[in-house]
Amino acid sequence: MSSLNADQRTRDLADLADRGVVDVLVVGGGITGAGVALDAASRGLRTALVEKRDLAFGTSRWSSKLVHGGLRYLASGDVGIAYESALERSILMRRTAPHLVRPLPQLVPLVSGVAARQAVLTGIGFLAGDLLRRSARTPSAVLPAPRRVPAAQVRRMVPAIRQDRLRGALLSWDGQLTDDARLVVGVARTAAAHGAQVLTRCAAEQVTGDGAVLRDERTGETTRIRARAVINAAGVWAGEVAPGLRLRPSRGTHLVVDDSAFGGLDAGLTVPVPGTTNRYVFALPAGYGRAYVGLTDEEQTGPVPDVPAATTEEVRFLLRTINSALARPIRDADVLATFSGLRPLLDGGDGDSADLSRSHAVRTDDAGIVSVVGGKLTTYRTMAEDAVDATGLPARPCRTRDLPLLGAASPRQLSTVDAPLPLVARYGTEAPAVVATAGGDERLLEPIEGLGITPAELHYAVRHEGALDVEDLLDRRTRIGLVAADRERARPAAERALHEAPTGR
Ligand SMILES: Cc1cc2nc3c(=O)[nH]c(=O)nc-3n(C[C@H](O)[C@H](O)[C@H](O)COP(=O)(O)OP(=O)(O)OC[C@H]3O[C@@H](n4cnc5c(N)ncnc54)[C@H](O)[C@@H]3O)c2cc1C
């Protein structure tokens, strides 16, 4: 087991200050930075990752949590990116993180608002997506082929679907993460298991191609360290780290609703935006009785906020579109919370923006800083490989394609893990270690009322997953904090976990 916690942080900071030099300094602890740290450390490079706030503090926790098979890229003719996405989905679901990615059925209902032409186009798209699945060697036992399903089956999967003139639905499958922030923590801990030093609340300042000043955000102390290569993975903040880089972020918003609004939700529900042929709004099952409704795409102007916020117009647009497929509309009052993330798009200059949410870019500036921006959660592994290759450091070849994350195992092996199923779904083979954290105290294994998460998980997060305060616990190691009332209910348990876990905070 690899443990991130307050003691490890103190030790690693002191060690880094003593040595004063690493091979690779990674700036940013989102999925990109965590992936780079794993890639570099597993190639035998002495690696330090510094994150100003917490793992997954930025965009990486605000995604739709889908592991895409590349269908949307096919629609825009980007066959190369589409294939890369399908391949990475296959690697995540079959080798590196089958414990964190599950197959998600997705329905496009054929109702009166969906024209026959639109249905045919969607069906052709699904078949093309299936070709990608097969070319990436993802067996149908992992992701079944798409098909048309009758109205009765649609009603079973989404009971609140509008019934009038429901002709059935097109059903396809994609990957869905248990949680995006948990993927980041899993990758970062696996990097630590390969020797990377992972330091949160540690900002990189005065960054150059051969080092940076590190500021301990808890004490204000600074130390300069040298590095043979510096990789900037600071997402929408990448332009602050490497000033030549200009980003033009775009905001994507989701709503959080009770899944009873759909009569329960066993599948993703995809609804075409009226008047368009390639825009959709979807509802996704989010676990613990919740569903997410997304997604918008709005230019974010002005300074980059720490935590972006949804606008009233975005909420209205999402409700209006999803309600077009429901028998009883979801109202404003049913929206429990919203969350928004910023896509790190590179500004192409001359007014047009290069949409790097579709692909990723690795740029080395005059100072020698290697920046890696754009891409997707799904493709973090190839982004990391390209960034480490770009440093030109002599090292072993990339090996992350075959490197399971901590807790990973095949579904068959996972079915034999001796722990409660909800824990196996979140921790894989590490679930028994979460149970052990309870030290035989059964109360710690009882879910916090109505929230599904157990206090043992909060203790585990403090001891092994680098949670340093209540926000880390409620906003990133779990997602309880998304809904304000849930947050208040869980706060005492989070405070107890921080107080009781012996980590020398
Ligand atoms: C709304 C939305 C939905 C999406 N849905 C999906 C999806 O379903 N599937 C998918 O594959 N992709 C999806 N994406 C894309 C994906 O989420 C992003 O591409 C990815 O999370 C970007 O990760 P990152 O690590 O590059 O950036 P971030 O996650 O933002 O990480 C950057 C980190 O750098 C840190 N940092 C900044 N400055 C410094 C500094 N000076 N020193 C140290 N640390 C610093 C920040 O605190 C932050 O934690 C979505 C994106 C959005 C916006």
From TrEMBL:
Alphabetical list of Gene3D superfamilies matching this protein: Alpha-glycerophosphate oxidase, cap domain (1.10.8.870), D-Amino Acid Oxidase, subunit A, domain 2 (3.30.9.10), FAD/NAD(P)-binding domain (3.50.50.60)
One Pfam assignment: DAO_C
InterPro entries, A to Z: DAO_C, DAO_C_sf, FAD-dep_OxRdtase, FAD/NAD-bd_sf, G3P_DH_FAD-dep
MF annotations from Gene Ontology: glycerol-3-phosphate dehydrogenase (quinone) activity
Biological source species: Saccharopolyspora montiporae
Family classification: Belongs to the FAD-dependent glycerol-3-phosphate dehydrogenase family.
Domain FAD dependent oxidoreductase: 23-349
Protein name (database record): Glycerol-3-phosphate dehydrogenase
Keyword Flavoprotein: yes
Keywords of the record: FAD, Flavoprotein, Glycerol metabolism, Oxidoreductase
Enzyme Commission numbers on file: 1.1.5.3
Any one GO BP annotation for this protein: glycerol-3-phosphate catabolic process
Cofactors named for this entry: FAD
Alpha-glycerophosphate oxidase C-terminal domain mapped to chain residues: 398-489
Matches recorded under SUPFAM superfamilies: FAD/NAD(P)-binding domain
Reactions performed catalytically: a quinone + sn-glycerol 3-phosphate = dihydroxyacetone phosphate + a quinol
One GO CC annotation: glycerol-3-phosphate dehydrogenase (FAD) complex
